[in-house]
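Risk register update: the risk of archive-format incompatibility is retired. Evidence:
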Amino acid sequence: MSTEDQKPWYRQFWCWFVFAPLGVWVIAMIGTVIVLNGNMDDLVVDDYSQLGKTYIQERAAYDRADALGVGARVHVQRDSGRVTLALEGLDTPPENLKVKLVHPTIAKRDLGVELHRDQTGLYRGGTGSAIDNRRYVIIEPVDGSWRLRGELKARVGDLRLGGSDGDGGA
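Archived output:
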């Protein structure tokens, strides 16, 4: 017998040649599963029929805003999260408005605020936290009878929606 045959199994070259790549593969797959479960995509929808119905209802709200000629000028103080809004085009403006500042990809970063009309006719409110990056802005009355939307670019604080100059929603 040669000395090679007398080595224990774990000191044999072929043992490590066969099992080491398998061990690396198992560790890599466990790491992949952990990463995938920790970073689930927020944009995946299971119920497409419900999504379609919601889209139709939202489209009708945008169309009502266009028909009424509703417009808004929005000013956002990004560092403090304060939102000031001037509403245009309504004879009897609502007392409160809901504003959503939607992050384009991460639902956990969405912010919502209810704005209250003051004596000057401006709507004011705050999110309580800083507003970073790009956001989609959605404005609607509490009853949801109409809706405006637009995009607030990164590092920009002013936005015009709807009315004669804006794009009410698209």
